[in-house]
Amino acid sequence: MSCILHIETSTAVCSVAVSEDSQVIFQQEDHSGPNHAERLGSMVDEALSFTDNHAIPFDAVAVSCGPGSYTGLRIGVSMAKGICYGRDLKLIAVPTLELLCVPVLLRELAEDEALLCPMLDARRMEVYAGIYDRALRPVREVQADVVDAETYKAFLDERPVYFFGNGAKKCMESINHPNARLIEGIEPLAKWMQPLAERRLLQGQTEDVAYFVPFYLKDFVAKMPKKLI
Questions:
Q1: Which of 87, 97, 127, 190 could form a disulfide with 118 if both were Cys (CB 3.0 to 4.6 A apart)?
Q2: Shortest CA distance to 164 belongs to which of 133, 207, 121?
Q3: Cα(128)–Cα(36) distance, rounded to whole angstroms?
Q4: CA 223: distance to chain centroid?
Q5: What pTM was computed for the model?
Q6: Which SS3 state, helix, strand or coil, does residue 148 take?
Q7: Where are the strands (E) in the chain, listed by range?
Q8: Residue 149 CB coordination number (10 Å)
Q9: Which residues have C-beta within 8 Å of that of residue 100, sequence separation ≥ 6?
């Protein structure tokens, strides 16, 4: 199988994990605020020391690739690239919105026919969101949404839709539909990256370490029509 170092810094939470043979064998999380520059280095050092002490060789580094915080993603991707260069490892990019779906699916919080709508907060009533089925197949293109009662109505009229992520709670009053479900407390964490990263590694979906850049939320918001910002 494989041993992967996972780094997640797309939001205010900083987290690191190590998985081996589909099991998470090391994890650390810091929920104290956006202090990735201070905490990530020491957390990664502890993860590397743990695997070195147990003589476990890494196969790849997985990093959340956005959308998300410009500063957070830049710090996480820079760290991941440095480790890949230093240890000659493959780089795996894990989309943040897909990552948000993993704890929902693992905890079986949604009905079989339900859709999943992870949301990252942009500003005001704007979010960056995707819509997936329970197999994580995209049902609607990932995009920035200005949320009102009509934004997801076509999907909600057909089946339940679960909304979660740090942009979801502020939208629920505007959505106001009987098929809308809110799941609170869902965060993108490194320990949830394992199934997505392993699948990409097995399928050969790795990145060019030299040229890879994450998808910054600010870049997408900058492209939105000015009247929406």
A1: 97
A2: 121
A3: 22
A4: 21
A5: 0.92
A6: coil
A7: 3-8, 14-20, 23-30, 60-64, 90-94, 115-123, 126-132, 138-146, 161-164, 180-182
A8: 12
A9: 118, 164, 165, 186, 187, 188
